[in-house]
Specification:
Radius of gyration: 17 Å
Number of strands: 7
Distance between the termini: 43 Å
Oligomer: single chain
Shape: globular
Structural class: alpha/beta
Order of helices and strands: HHHEHEHEHEHEHEEH
Helix content: 40-55%
Strand content: 15-25%
Length: 221
């Protein structure tokens, strides 16, 4: 496994790679290398024109996505003001600020106000809120769009490979609720991958395919 992980190093601008390495040692570590590699692979395949990110942190994943998708525009939401300001600085540093709509606020309040469709949604905010965000993410995601939820296995706690600390049991149950709901939703096809701390990759079906899936489950299309 270590050998495979060693190969999953995103090919990024040297300056961005250095900043990601420094961030890994801080209070708000950047997206793990293999997770980012998977995210960028999906972005390369899907070529979204609009990307939504929930949880900006310092904006380094945002920058990587915009470098990979040179014609895309990105909307990103961050609750912490210090992180938000640092992200704005990084957007300017890499010359992508004109393609970013950075919003300071609680995603639970911001998401209902967003309009239009996004081809890729990167869900990396508070894990206890994933299920709460799901209905708006589904509304905002275009057909064949990808909803990528990060950190859904959390050190093996969620899938039972490791014992969950008592104070983290509620968090684990919130993530499990999200995974149950997204996996059972006929409007999505979902894979849960052991990448980084776990990633749930969900593709929104077209209306026709979704209708067939609902009919098979005994519901009206």
């Amino acid at each position: 496994m270590d050998f495979i992980k060693s190969l999953m190093c995103p090919k990024l601008d040297a300056r961005l790679s250095q900043m990601r390495e420094r961030a890994k040692e801080g209070r708000d570590p950047s997206t793990e290398d293999d997770t980012l590699q998977l995210l960028l692979t999906i972005a390369r395949l899907s070529r979204p024109e609009r990307i939504l990110e929930i949880g900006t942190a310092e904006g380094l994943t945002s920058v990587a996505l915009l470098c990979e998708c040179e014609n895309a525009r990105l909307t990103t939401i961050e609750l912490d003001e210090e992180r938000y300001r640092k992200a704005k600085e990084n957007f300017a540093l890499f010359g992508v600020e004109d393609r970013v709509n950075a919003i300071l606020g609680d995603a639970a309040d911001v998401l209902p106000s967003l309009e239009g469709e996004f081809g890729l949604i990167f869900l990396d905010g508070p894990k206890v809120q994933y299920k709460k965000y799901l209905s708006d993410c589904k509304r905002l995601l275009c057909e064949n769009g990808v909803l990528f939820a990060d950190d859904v296995l959390l050190y093996g706690w969620v899938d039972g490979r490791a014992e969950t600390p008592l104070k983290r049991r509620m968090l684990v149950e919130h993530i499990r609720e999200y995974l149950r709901e997204i996996s059972s939703d006929p409007d999505f096809i979902t894979s849960i991958l052991d990448t980084g701390e776990g990633a749930a990759v969900s593709v929104k079906r077209t209306s026709f395919v979704s209708g067939l899936a609902k009919n098979r489950n005994g519901r009206k299309a």
